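Posting for a labmate who doesn't have an account.
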Amino acid sequence: MSWSGPEDLYLSTSLASYLDRKILILLRDGRKLLGTLCSFDQFANAVLEGACERVIVGELYCDIPLGLYVIRGENVVLIGELDSEKDDLPSHMTRVPIPEIRKAQKAERDACDLKGTMRKRMEFLDMD
């Protein structure tokens, strides 16, 4: 990556320190992406190498491989470096295959939708 001047270095030092390191990116839609930061620009657009999406549902998790992945900066909420010396997740978490985590995601979404529907039906009670 080339810098045009010291002002560019000042604006981007925090991301520059993550180059070629394993990072976690949290997106606006709640997805969590892990991978090695290859490149970025002034808009926080980022390129991850060996990227995967970490899906967590309750005590279950799955890393879905994505490969080389480009992320639009406006969707980024948080970027952080992962500590390679520590375990990624607590020991009580269980790794499951992709089809199983998709079923768990759907069940969680359905339960959330049902809860929202029930709340709307009970609004007439005005519990405040």
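Reply:
Got it, the structure tokens are right above this. Strands lie at 22-27, 32-40, 46-57, 60-71, 76-81, 94-95.
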